[in-house]
Amino acid sequence: MMKNSETPICDLGFGVKQESAQPEALKKAVHTRRRSSAASTCSFSSACFTGSSDEEEISPRDKTQRSTTGFTDFCVKNINAQYAFGRREIDIAEQEMPGIMTLRKRAREDKPLRNAKIVGCTHINAQTAVLIETLVELGASVRWAACNIYSTQNAVAAALAEAGIPIYAWRGETEEDFWWCLDKCISANNWQPNLILDDGGDATHLMWKKYPELFKEIKGIVEESLTGVHRLYHMSKNGKLTVPAINVNDSVTKMKFDNFYSMQDAILDSLKRTTDIMFGGKQVVVCGYGDVGKGCAKSLKAQGCIVYVTEIDPICALQASMDGHRVVTLNEVIRSVDVVVTATGNKNVVTREHMDRMKNGCIVCNMGHSNSEIDVNSIHTPELRWETVRSQVDHIIWPDGRMIILLAEGRLVNMSCSTVPSFVVSVAAATQALALIELYNAVQGRYKSDVYLLPKKMDEYVASLHLPTFDAHLTELSDEQAKYLGLNRSGPFKPNYYRY
Amino acid sequence: MMKNSETPICDLGFGVKQESAQPEALKKAVHTRRRSSAASTCSFSSACFTGSSDEEEISPRDKTQRSTTGFTDFCVKNINAQYAFGRREIDIAEQEMPGIMTLRKRAREDKPLRNAKIVGCTHINAQTAVLIETLVELGASVRWAACNIYSTQNAVAAALAEAGIPIYAWRGETEEDFWWCLDKCISANNWQPNLILDDGGDATHLMWKKYPELFKEIKGIVEESLTGVHRLYHMSKNGKLTVPAINVNDSVTKMKFDNFYSMQDAILDSLKRTTDIMFGGKQVVVCGYGDVGKGCAKSLKAQGCIVYVTEIDPICALQASMDGHRVVTLNEVIRSVDVVVTATGNKNVVTREHMDRMKNGCIVCNMGHSNSEIDVNSIHTPELRWETVRSQVDHIIWPDGRMIILLAEGRLVNMSCSTVPSFVVSVAAATQALALIELYNAVQGRYKSDVYLLPKKMDEYVASLHLPTFDAHLTELSDEQAKYLGLNRSGPFKPNYYRY
Amino acid sequence: MMKNSETPICDLGFGVKQESAQPEALKKAVHTRRRSSAASTCSFSSACFTGSSDEEEISPRDKTQRSTTGFTDFCVKNINAQYAFGRREIDIAEQEMPGIMTLRKRAREDKPLRNAKIVGCTHINAQTAVLIETLVELGASVRWAACNIYSTQNAVAAALAEAGIPIYAWRGETEEDFWWCLDKCISANNWQPNLILDDGGDATHLMWKKYPELFKEIKGIVEESLTGVHRLYHMSKNGKLTVPAINVNDSVTKMKFDNFYSMQDAILDSLKRTTDIMFGGKQVVVCGYGDVGKGCAKSLKAQGCIVYVTEIDPICALQASMDGHRVVTLNEVIRSVDVVVTATGNKNVVTREHMDRMKNGCIVCNMGHSNSEIDVNSIHTPELRWETVRSQVDHIIWPDGRMIILLAEGRLVNMSCSTVPSFVVSVAAATQALALIELYNAVQGRYKSDVYLLPKKMDEYVASLHLPTFDAHLTELSDEQAKYLGLNRSGPFKPNYYRY
Amino acid sequence: MMKNSETPICDLGFGVKQESAQPEALKKAVHTRRRSSAASTCSFSSACFTGSSDEEEISPRDKTQRSTTGFTDFCVKNINAQYAFGRREIDIAEQEMPGIMTLRKRAREDKPLRNAKIVGCTHINAQTAVLIETLVELGASVRWAACNIYSTQNAVAAALAEAGIPIYAWRGETEEDFWWCLDKCISANNWQPNLILDDGGDATHLMWKKYPELFKEIKGIVEESLTGVHRLYHMSKNGKLTVPAINVNDSVTKMKFDNFYSMQDAILDSLKRTTDIMFGGKQVVVCGYGDVGKGCAKSLKAQGCIVYVTEIDPICALQASMDGHRVVTLNEVIRSVDVVVTATGNKNVVTREHMDRMKNGCIVCNMGHSNSEIDVNSIHTPELRWETVRSQVDHIIWPDGRMIILLAEGRLVNMSCSTVPSFVVSVAAATQALALIELYNAVQGRYKSDVYLLPKKMDEYVASLHLPTFDAHLTELSDEQAKYLGLNRSGPFKPNYYRY
């Protein structure tokens, strides 16, 4: 279950791309992306809103830019006006990303990415900037584009360019800009990429499609999104994946943080910022009891809510029961609950029929990984009146005066109305960096042309990088104990199928 | 322990007024009020920020205003431009104030305040507007001024004026305006007040001082602030209180909501909105384990923080221990904690010495009821650099680069960086309304010229007004059971000293 | 709300004694006591069951006994055979009673009870023995009888006698024995008591009735039971109380431990030991949301139960709602709950009508302070079959085969099926000792012939005695802070009406 | 991680049997079993202690027994005297085993085990009797022996025999008896077994070794213990497993209950029954943060303990941190904690060195799955004094008087000092029954001669059988939703690698 904002975008894009890889289809995919993700572009940092005033007429592609040191291999918006602010944002992010910073320190001497040449295509914001600069410190040369036309923090891109990193990205790219930027990153003179770090699969797809000779030569791909992973598995199944790839989306440490831990905070924050709800005594139904639902239910209950759970899977339903939540169908409680939270990954979980029966003032929001969990289309009908009372908060008013409160128009409320803590990004970034190191340094033949999970030991290493934050001290096995357990003293400590 | 924003203001004002009631002193008190409360004026509603753009040059006192129905007995800012927006804010607030709305419905027929003439002096915002209009529905005629020169929501004041209520208030009054407004409320033609609803004691003071003959005739005073209550007890002690007064600040239901329940939400919200902190595993010290500290500690622990508590009182310290928190002195943990929260009501709980030893990135905030819990003056020194990174968030940077994060400049972070849920205000408003009804309808001689707590039965009634929100159903005593317990079937159910 | 086992006993005895103090009535009271308390006599220690095999034919009164040192001023059962075992029980109890042991150490030099002569009448078990020996170490000479004919741990009584303490008590006294023992304690030669420590009021009553001249001379009475306190207030009201008395039953620290904290553990323990129930997902209704109900509800919810609450008081009901429990009437949930827990102090809270509708296998138990919360008489009818499946566990079987599980025959399940942790007794014992010290050392005139609560500062001192157990460190006020708060640096820190 | 009592037994037995299958070795294995498991034989039911008085001289093998209906194909102890009591125990167990009873009802008509002939070798107690009788109701004929010479509840065995089930088992079998009983179950006249249900692998081993021609013909083996599963994998690896087997030990539903949920209750119950500890404020270190450690830590924290965690695995350590526990090494906290709980599965986690430094009164217990987590041998030295203060509770006293409290002599405290709730056994029993049904009805060729996990769908079915207990209602996928998710509407709903 994936929690990144690009999920819905790429889900749509994926279907299109799968059927035909023609330029038109690609444009359509990116166009779809624009509509569906505009609202969530600012979710990564409270500070990103400051970038909204720099919109101007001239495209960055039509301007000549130059860093204070004379560097020109980049294309961003207003480098000189913004880089200082962007640098401070990066500085602040560094303080809250202990894992990736520790990795930077530990591996700085070794330079495990010496001579690595990485094409990157991810969101560009303060946190990913910390990742990018870490890769450079570890010895890599990189070229970077944005994976989303709306999510770039321009000031951060400016700071990276000022630091001499070839970066091609700005907020509000057109679809053509998007592909132009990506192309500039892949096909530089005298620079043959040997690794891809991708978020959604576009860099992989473009290189495979347009530069097959380059593609064949790379050492591997690291992909972090659910959609990109699907595309890789699809390529692999069809025999088109000719290089190794690591799926970091399903890494244990990253998943626990993206889903369970992150959501514990996010549900409270999202509801509070939008509605000022008081949690005590509120009746809430959480649809879905996977890791996201578990995190939401736990926090809401702890704050005094009465939590109901809906589930399709008996095992998760039994867990919900044992954890002290009533397991119900949505129909049973829809008339009485104060809040409906979706966390299923499914579509049309909340239907018009449900919304017709909710009580006055019921809050409806989506924490899942699909934007279609709430059937928002069904309430875009003439007899219902929509009033936007705050940003991301709509009152939908029935003819009889009854009103429901829809957050973020049914999109991911945690992305639209809360923030992703830097600590969570730190876990994901460290996972990506380690996957790149693993692919780059693996002995010949260790990885075939297939999609791999991050080795358990690397996953454990990601976790260990974040322990000093908590002043947590690991216990070490004695030789005798390691032998008794049949383990290597330095791990991995669990079999792959272990359920954390 | 009081959680209203006027506390620190009035604490200062009180001292001054006590010594001398001369105009100059009063002005000074109000002036002090301005400086100390500016930051918290917007705390009552997320929507209040919308009012900030209507600042203009001409004073409301210099303009002739008229409602659409021709009403003119008021002085607000821009009635015609703003009343519609203000009305919607009131409508929204009504939906979240079930207690006061239920009271309105129940008592509408009886009109228990028929012919009551109330001078009101409180904050003026959507929630207090619901109270004001409820008093009117219950039969009272009212005249209303603001108790704070910065906290008025102009649009709400406009809506009240449009509805025909004599209201004298706008955001940004001068001190002279303040007293002029109050005077206009007290000394209207053909309108002799018989009740005062006060927040801070200024209406009481002015009437007692300037209109002693009016003052003698009133049936009673209801006061909701800690400061105003102190002033009343002082008057009583000195034999100057010639009418009954009810202290609603210490009502059980109100206190539990103002302190314990409200703070459970507010600590998480305040920290999250300002710092995007991830709670899991964070080490937090909560200074003070009264109701505020208990609420903070409970929520933080539930979200995965490791909570330490400091206390001066052995009984509260023992409670903290039994509740699973380590009880420490601040010195023991100051080098290792990630967050310091003050909730003591004391002064200089966090000193420069403490701040000199905090770890890099430590967050410091105040949830108590005094603005002096953190010795902020001690860090206004040349060698420390202050950087405001977001609204209400300052980085204070030591010469060695170490940095602490101070929220709301040490003022109440829950008022500055979070909101007071309407439900909490609903409890307070219902308490005030019932106190007014009690004083107005009490049989002759029931209340002497003294300060009373709200009768237990009224307090229970306030609670009962809020139960339908939770679909909560009370059990009724049988006659046999009531007799066994020695209780009246309709309450009160507990002795006055009962500890809830 | 009182949690001591003697409550029901004394409730009955009290009514009788009040009406007439004749021997016959007293006998009846004590006789009633026997029936109602037999089951709970062993509740104070798991080890007390070891005493059950020493029942024999000859009454202790008919045997000559002598300690190994030749001491003979006592009457217990089998001193020589049992004192060693009793001493070890006392040793173990001392380790878990940090408060009273610290007091012993601190006050050993001062001997604040030097020359005090105390008549004691309490349960006699390992924990009270620690109290008794502490009083002796503090300088007192004591004479001690049991307040309950069934609760004496004979081995402990033997150990006290062997240590030279005049003790008159054994398990299984007749009513005549009971009064004979008490008389022996009050009317010794050359020993004029000046303090009474009473649990239920019998020592007070006997001395006042039979030895009025002695009674007049005492410095004061400390009473720890709800019933005894009622009797004192009754005496006071009728002008018969000619000496000061301290009610320690309502001391803050003691009450919190007796009710809230103690019950958190006890509800889980009581249910588990009797029924092996698995808590997760169980639906439980807790009747009453005072401190006992709050403690039960909190623990059950934390272990995964879904908790419903019934309440008569709107304030407590609102607290339950805010704490995340549905507030219902018993009728609403009686068909669906798995467990019914009473904690009201009321009578007939669970009626035959309720029991007729419970689902098969429903567990019913009483945690309140009255034995009549469950109408057990109503199910002693011929058509229902009772099967005792384990000690304290009865299956009541309806003609249709449906069955409910009644614990402890409706008596206090926490007393019958769990234990009172020594730590809780330590708090009570320290409170009693301090009350005795206070009365004995008070300056002339400080206490009149009335019933007092323990002074707040003493209450705080009891708490402070128990902090070292948790390695808890108090913060001390600076002079400046104390002045700011208007407090003495050494306390008391809260007004008497403060709600912890 | 396995929580059954046979673990230590079979671990020992396994090693021996593996090296040589000679009778002497087998005897030794069983002998070892006796010593190591005696203390835990009564753990399955509080009622099993009633069986302890029926020890007599004559071996059951030397007596002729006959049921009231004339049935004689069994060997138990005192059928006539005990069957009625045993039947009632079974009746009680049925009420708390909803899953297996629902399965019984649902499959009674189908008789999915018609003509199945099952050799069973498990513990024999009220709960397993419910399983056995369910198998019979589903159409199977069974023959049953005990897997442990000490754990049989004789009354239950008698009830089964009285019901006409061939059962060969009694408490206190000799090793020879053990193999004789098992042989009687395998090699009956005119009865060719086609399924084995095994707990520890002894039935499998004996049939494979002594009756290879019978073994070849069976349809499959269901094994529920960790040890038995190890033996099967070993057979499979060595090419000796000639029939399919299902490992139910690692089924998802069963594991979650055996470890996480069961331990939440068990840690509190074990500590309370043995030590009467009050949980509030106690400092506890939990060694190991797998499912068992997670369950223990969660409950202890909820009851007010301050919990420290030790871990070797960084991922689990990070989880502990995020869940609000300090992660430490044992050395860091050993001097200050009140309780040490082991839950690692490792050996010598608590060493003599640790115990030398524990504070006076520290409680030490083992919740893990190995009996060697605490190095008990190291404290069986002359300078330390052992005092058994209650059953399963030893005080170990150092020469300086310092004392630690060791529970269950370091064996599994949850097995020795608590009980396994019937609900947990119900989950395991339903899992076993479904595995038997699956193997018996699988189409030819579906299962090879290998060891399989229970199919996910069956695992989900086990969970679904237990939902009615909680009145939990599953949501059903619409066709459209199922298609969207790529799932079959009836499940399985998750991939095999899903982490619940």
From TrEMBL, chains A, B, C, D:
NAD(+) binds at residues 290-295, 311, 414. Pfam families: AdoHcyase, AdoHcyase_NAD. Its cofactor is NAD(+). CDD domains: SAHH. It comes from the Eukaryota. GO terms for molecular function: adenosylhomocysteinase activity. Its EC number is 3.13.2.1. Residues 259-420 form the S-adenosyl-L-homocysteine hydrolase NAD binding domain. InterPro entries: Adenosylhomocyst_ase-like_sf, Adenosylhomocysteinase-like, Ado_hCys_hydrolase_NAD-bd, NAD(P)-bd_dom_sf, S-Ado-L-homoCys_hydrolase_CS. Keywords: Hydrolase, NAD, One-carbon metabolism. It catalyses: S-adenosyl-L-homocysteine + H2O = L-homocysteine + adenosine. The keyword Transmembrane helix does not apply. GO terms for cellular component: cytosol. Binds 1 NAD(+) per subunit. Residues 44-66 are annotated as: Disordered. Coiled coil: none annotated. GO terms for biological process: one-carbon metabolic process; S-adenosylmethionine cycle. Pathway: Amino-acid biosynthesis; L-homocysteine biosynthesis; L-homocysteine from S-adenosyl-L-homocysteine: step 1/1. The keyword Repeat does not apply. Belongs to the adenosylhomocysteinase family. This is Adenosylhomocysteinase. It comes from Stomoxys calcitrans.
